Amino acid sequence: MYLAANFNFLMKQVFASIITIGDELLIGQVIDTNSAFIAQELNKIGIAVKHRLAVGDAWDDIWDALNDEKKQADIIIITGGLGPTADDITKPLLCKYFGGKLIMHQPTLEHVTYLFEKVFKRTLPLSERNRKQAEVPDVCTVLKNERGTAPGMLFEQQGKLFFSLPGVPFEMKGLMTDHVLQIIQQKFKPGFIEHRTLLTAGIGESYLADRIKDFEEALPANIKLAYLPNHGMVRLRLTAHGYDHTELLISIDHQFSLLKSQITDVMVTDEDLTMEAIVGKLLTERKQTVATAESCTGGYIAHLLTSIAGSSSYYEGSVVSYSYAVKENVLHVSPETLSTYGAVSEQTVTAMVQHVRQLMNTDYAIAVSGIMGPDGGTTDKPVGSVWMAVASKHKIITRLFQFRFDRARNIQLTATSALNLLRQLIVDNH
Amino acid sequence: MYLAANFNFLMKQVFASIITIGDELLIGQVIDTNSAFIAQELNKIGIAVKHRLAVGDAWDDIWDALNDEKKQADIIIITGGLGPTADDITKPLLCKYFGGKLIMHQPTLEHVTYLFEKVFKRTLPLSERNRKQAEVPDVCTVLKNERGTAPGMLFEQQGKLFFSLPGVPFEMKGLMTDHVLQIIQQKFKPGFIEHRTLLTAGIGESYLADRIKDFEEALPANIKLAYLPNHGMVRLRLTAHGYDHTELLISIDHQFSLLKSQITDVMVTDEDLTMEAIVGKLLTERKQTVATAESCTGGYIAHLLTSIAGSSSYYEGSVVSYSYAVKENVLHVSPETLSTYGAVSEQTVTAMVQHVRQLMNTDYAIAVSGIMGPDGGTTDKPVGSVWMAVASKHKIITRLFQFRFDRARNIQLTATSALNLLRQLIVDNH
User: Fold this and answer.
1) pTM for this model (two decimals)
2) The domain A275-428 is classified under which CATH number: 3.90.950.20, 3.50.50.60, 3.40.50.920, 3.40.980.10?
3) What is the ipTM of this complex?
4) Is B427 exposed, middle or buried (0-12, 13-18, 19+ CB in 10 A)?
């Protein structure tokens, strides 16, 4: 413990700042997913992110951001502002900022020509705008963009690195993986950061915090605990910094075991997995299968399950029954059940879950039916009322939930809760 | 034109900065959707966002961010750092920054108690941590949080407004709508900002830019054009600023008409709608219905369609057929078709689309089958190959797509492309 804390003092933390450029970020038309990816990747190699800053497509704002962030950070990663259209001023600005002039970069021009002719299969000649994509400041190192026309650029100034990457997430990710991370590792030889994450369910953030108060206060200085509540569950994350990787691993694993031992009853998993990945892992281990019958979630549970690569080995499919007719004709819910109890009822989800499990011949099934809002609520069944059922060959469990949010959040919470209910059934069904 | 440009000079633009607090943002564990919402809402009332800045849960970083941002902006909106757990230092910091001391706010304590007892239906007594939620600096105006326990806070310093809001999106949104926007409007009486957005398909960003180059260069100074490429389509957005609302509307609508007249052949819609909303609108207008049969998208098309409130009036449901068995047994694709042509084939999607339209008795249907990756590709059908079909009562259109991205993006692009194909069929089918 003492050693681990000590290493922290010896370690010089390397800091990065992420600057995203684009008016669309400042008017909220686009959600910034790039920064999260870049932060994750930097973190894995031991770089701490100091700031994430979004600025508009305005010369002075970008210029000032570069000046401000280089005071704070050793590495500045800029995304966006490199597209072929006229509102992009980033490249001329970088040219001026680093004291260079724009030149045509021949290998990039060849790459752009290749992409247009062979990959995009365009018959039109390369336009002047597209040719301009291959222009770069003569003071940068060009980073080849395998996935698109705008090259990445690396500038160095007073021992600090400045990377300029395109804003298209797919291209930015390629450049990070192909070039940026290696260059940073070579230059800075940063220390190590390790995370351990676990997921709890059924306990509020504040009660959890009270329970592990003593543990948290006794943590060494180089290990931090964070509470990440989401979808009605709380994730706990330990983060450790240090230079000696072996020492660091011993220290964080020791603390993680301690933490787990104090919350076994509410812990869902000790891995940093989504609920759909946890369910997928359980089914893969057990070589079992699942099908879904979804009314109110409208295919979102199916989407979550199939967002996992390899899910075809355990997921058969879904009937999304958004109407009474589909509930009757495809899921064989009887008209009497629907008229007597309604679509949002224990009887209906029970019929749905039984039929879809048989129809798709699976080990397990999930069925949900509810009112997601904003309309459709009644006094008996207000917006947010959801009946769900999970079934194995021998057992059906039903549950009524009452969510209190907007449509999108109600759909998410319903899906996660249904997957958690299935998880419990699978774990109990051993 | 001249007048509109002139108004711009008279107008004092009010600026805001958004500071999001939380280590989870800097390690990329959480995607920041709050900033986008806040930016959108500020924008609608004529406030321009200067910066969006994310900082960690560290005293100095938050302190410095407040100092830096108040130089840039008239309004500073802080989210996050108000939860009940120990890593939250925001409230003591704000107390010190604005020179106050923490006091118990009685109405908030009553609200917290009410929430725990009546809404969350907790039987445990209110913990010390939960009581602390009701403590506020005595120099702030408390903004009641109807949706949660952490109150919003308003501070004023040298004519600038500082809002501190909880980071939970649902609660933050409530506080923005209930309090923040009105307070800002009352104090600053900002000018107006108007946007007009249209969506194009089938033309690249650079070709589009060449086509409307003259239009763009002739725009008055107070109107800006932005290119927003996404999901293989390009959105064009005009933004106008000004004090005279009538003048502003005339000017932007004039420019928008001009723009539309130059790109009628590639314009999908002149509203700021998602593809699923466009399809929903067309079906609602025509009182027609649709069903889907999804293999590779795994329910994502159904999810997009049902994310629109009111979609139950035109959307019947989906069969997500993730296995051969479900394609055969539920969608009646013949075993011969599957063995001769494979699941990813024109023949299979044709059979899927025909059967699901009949099964769910709809006017239209969509079917998709493809290989989303990372595994499952072959030489003939590499990762990203997708067959899709759309059908009306009298017509079936099929298409082969070849996407080149990762699993998540391939799923998104497949869904959007299929919805666009359906849109074309509906529009042609009048």
Assistant:
1) 0.80
2) 3.90.950.20
3) 0.79
4) exposed
